[in-house]
Amino acid sequence: MPNKPHTVSARKSGPLNGKVRAPGDKSISHRSLIFGAMAEGTTTVTGLLEGEDIMSTANAMRAFGADITRAANGTWTVVGVGKDGLQTPDAPVDCGNAGTGVRLIMGAAAGYALTATFTGDASLTSRPMNRILHPLRDMGVTYKAAEGGRLPVNLSSGGDLKPISYTPPHASAQVKSAILLAALNTEGVTEVIETTPTRDHSENMLRAFGVTVNTRKISLPGMTEGDSISVKGPAKLTATKIDVPGDPSSAAFPIVAALITPGSDVVVENVMMNPTRTGLFECLTEMGAYLRADNFRKSGGEVIADFHVRYSKLRGIVVPPHRAASMIDEYPILAVAAAYADGVTIMDEIGELRVKESDRISATMALLIENGVDATELKNGMRVRGGAVAGGATVKTHHDHRIAMSALVLGLAAANAVSIDDAAMIATSFPNFFEMMRGLGAEISE
Ligand code: S3P
Questions:
Q1: 3-state SS, residue 58
Q2: Is domain 8-24+245-445 in CATH 3.65.10.10, yes or no?
Q3: Which helix (H) or strand (E) holds 112?
Q4: Do 8-24+245-445 and 26-218 have matching folds?
């Protein structure tokens, strides 16, 4: 059951100190359960993020016929549906707050002869689904959606889709992944063309499940280069073992907290360094952060490292728009770092932030402005002038875990406490956030 709404405050803290471990990556955790459920055989998953979003995905895949259990030692076992395929669920599938969950599962379900209704919480039912539904319709799926292509969506497939070549209009790993999942049970070659590379966890994990995924550089009209990612179906997934690496998007919170809280010296271990995810670390380094990655090693097919981070005098930067896909979930916490930096930080051409768990451009701007930061909302971006932060406001989180955690981090170095109207959503992606932050010395109270 989701947590009850509750308010929390963060106030000016002494130096943060200690060593913490980043929780399991949310993107890889969703994929491990979805792919494992579609596979033949029993997949085991260690290091799974046990957040509410992932539990919603586990329940959804159970509803489609997979058997998913957790052992006392924290290892998860997924008995896939294999040859029988995903089955029509008995009841509407509630994906909670999880955009990745619902979009990837719709793609997976589309390849089988079934009918399913998908729904979610107040945030998820306000997010656009046409970006998935339109290419799936091109492949042969029929559906009924609420106004504007929102959930609830009733999706029907005859399990006899036709392959497509599709260029998504937005850089989106969710769209790419949904199409590749539908392609697995589709006769012929289905291709996604990316004009901007997005996280490649689906490609990597499909290969771990024994599927051949072809990727090649192609030239696009206008002399630009793109990537073609394709799967020839039908392709069988064979169960495997997955060790989920730590989530760079969650590591971002203790890292920025240490950078802005005077005297801090923190180590964050187990951070995935996949280059499609590390844009925030590049930005922070350009801003003058003491942020050193070492102890590089492999976990679950990904490179991971430990970050040593110290309080740093930051300076504003212009974030290159081409970096957006590699840090798409990190803009709210980058804006918090920018609020403590000397000078101006500009984050532009990030209109996609308006359709995340909340409109993250306006929610981040309200978070900063109400706490006395000189910030300006741009049409598709944000401009933040750093300096001392007054704090003192209660931030509206709009059911968005990353807005909630960003606001609390802002409060750790502000003159007055920063509160949030609801901390419940933090459990969707970072269930031990409070324990970890308090363990480092953060003054966060209910
Ligand atoms: C994700 C892709 C991104 C990201 C989300 C996770 C994924 O969404 O914001 O948190 O796991 O594929 P988009 O595909 O909408 O960019």
A1: helix
A2: yes
A3: none
A4: yes
374: part of which helix (H) or strand (E)? Answer: strand 374-378
Q: CATH says 26-218 is which class?
A: alpha beta
User: Cβ neighbours of residue 134 under 8 Å, at least 6 residues apart?
Assistant: none
Q: What is the pLDDT of residues 318-349, one digit of tens each?
A: 999 999 999 999 999 999 999 999 999 999 99
For ligand 1, whether the C-beta of 173 sits within 6 Å is yes
Place of tokens 């957006």: 324
End-to-end CA distance of the chain: 20
- CA-wise closest residue to 161 among 178, 145, 144, 138: 138
Three-state DSSP at 158 gives strand
Residue 380 tokens read as 């598709």
Is the overall model pTM greater than 0.90, yes or no? yes
The reported pLDDT for the residue numbered 4 is 73
DSSP-based three-state secondary structure for 432:
coil
CB of 29 closer than 6 angstroms to any ligand 1 atom:
no
Give the integer Cα–Cα distance in Å for 416 and 55. 36
pLDDT score at 3: 65
CB 342 within 8 A of CB 386: yes
pLDDT category, 300, cuts 50, 70, 90?
Answer: confident
pLDDT tens across 165-201, in order?
Answer: 999 999 999 999 999 999 999 999 999 999 999 999 9
- Determine the distance separating the centroid of ligand 1 and the alpha carbon of 313, expressed in angstroms: 31
Residue 3 tokens, joined: 């947590």
| Active site annotation includes 67 | no
Nearest to 297 by CA among 281, 280, 273, 279: 273
Task: Write down the domain spans for the chain.
Answer: 8-24+245-445, 26-218
Q: How far is the CA of 172 from the centre of ligand 1 (A)?
A: 6
Q: How would residue 1 be classed by pLDDT, with cut points 50, 70 and 90?
A: very low
Q: What single-letter amino acid sits at 187?
A: E
Q: What number of other Cβ atoms are within 10 A of residue 133's Cβ?
A: 22
